[in-house]
Structures are given as C-alpha cells and as structure tokens.
Amino acid sequence: MSIDPAINAEPVLRQRLRIPVHLGVIMDGNGRWAKARGKMRTEGHIEGVKSLRNLVELSINYGIAHLTVFSFSSENWTRPKDEVAFIFNLLRRFVASDLQRLIRNNVRVRIIGSRAGLEPSLIRLIDDVEAKTVDNTGLVLVIAFNYGGKAEITDATRKIAVEVAAGRLKPEDITEATVEAALYTSGLPDPDLIIRTSGEQRISNFLLWQAAYSEFVFVDENWPDFDESSFVRVLEIFSRRDRRFGGIEAQTS
Ligand code: FPP
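Structure tokens predicted for Isoprenyl transferase:
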C-alpha cells in the first residue's frame, strides 16, 4: 500500500461515481488464475493477497467507509488440508506484514466468523488486531474468516434463545433489530454493493441476512487480476443502478 499520505482518486472521476458506503467482495478465482499460468493454487492465493492490499488502498482513496472481504468460508474446510493450512497462514502473514501500515492509515480491522475450530494462537492474533485498531476512524476492513451466513444466523438465534430462556427478553419483543444486534456484523451498515469475481454468479453463504437489498455485480476477472480499472468499471455499473428497496422510486445510497 502506498497510501500515506492519502492519495485521492482523481476528483472528476469521483464526482461521477456513486460510492458505496459498504462494499462486500467475494474474492474468487485464485485457483483458476494459478492454473491458467501453470502455477500451484497456493501461488494464486499469494497473488490474491496482493489484490486485497490493492483493494484496501482503492477503498481508502475512493472514500468507501466499510469493506468486507470473504477470505475463508465455513465450507472451505472441505479443501485439501494443505491448502486450508496455507490460507490460515496467509491470514497470519497478512497481519504480520500489513498491520502497521493499516494502523498508520487509520484502518479499523474486524474479523468476523466463527471462532470454533480455530487454534488458540489464531484467536489471540485476531483479538490483538481488533484491539490495536479499535480506535481507528477511517476505513473499516472486515475480514470474513471461517465465516458462513447460515452459521452466523444460527449463532444469532442461539444468542437470542439464551436471552429468552433467561427471561431477559420476551419472544414478542424480538425485532429485526434484535437479530441484527446478534449478528457478527452488529453495528455495520448493510452492504450496498457486493462484487464477485471469476464469472461465478452465486452468493455462496456470504452476508445472507445483510445482502437483502444489496446490488450485485459479477465480473469475469479472477481475483488476482481485479485492479483499479475493474474497480472503476464496477462503480460505474453500480452508479447506474436504480435502487428501490422494495419501493417504487429510485433512492440514493
Ligand atoms: C477464492 O479462490 C479464494 C479463497 C477461497 C481464498 C481467499 C484468500 C485470499 C484472496 C487471500 C486473502 C487473505 C487473507 C487470509 C487475509 P479459489 O481458491 O476459490 O479459486 P478457484 O475457484 O479458482 O479454485
């Protein structure tokens, strides 16, 4: 990241783009990127981290407030053990190499997902990153790691059930706000825009509750090839979308 001091995106370009408040990204296609070049899948993941670093920089420069990236899903455990271990190590390496820069650039990091099945040392690392950046007021970078939307809603349901069983909450008092407050994403706005790379057109258990009114843009590039021109192209598509939220008139986000 070359973001200190902050470089702003070209002002005219920014003026004609609608900037999402919360951008979600399903970073897909690292394996295919590698295969197409006769490389190991793990090399694709390494390039994927570079692309993530670039996206963080772009998000800061274009004024996005919240960025959530899907980096390991609860379903990814079915991959070969070595690849799972490699992705876990990538998280550790990303934190080791980028934490100071993220702090300097006022980025707050949140890591959402289930802690079940994670090694205690990884849980400590996650807690440490969150604690060290908690007072930062710039971009909120949310890393969905060991995350699944169904598991998140199930966990939220369990938390609410505990409150009801203890007599602290009445079933008739449960509202959408109660559920939202029990999700991992509590306190974050819903994503306005979700991008998925690599040509796949699925949600794959990403932010299921939160994506109720998100716009989706699917791009053909594999994640390591997603660059500033892809990013601007997506924002241009998003800027032309007519968001009605179930109503009849276009809304601005
Ligand atoms: C999707 O490509 C990518 C993943 C499941 C792993 C994503 C990890 C990164 C981009 C690195 C970010 C990292 C961290 C941990 C901070 P794929 O393997 O599904 O590709 P394929 O569909 O072509 O096989």
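The pocket of farnesyl diphosphate is lined by residues 27-32, 45, 48-49, 52, 71, 76, 87, 90-91, 94, 143, 198, 223 (CB under 6 Å).
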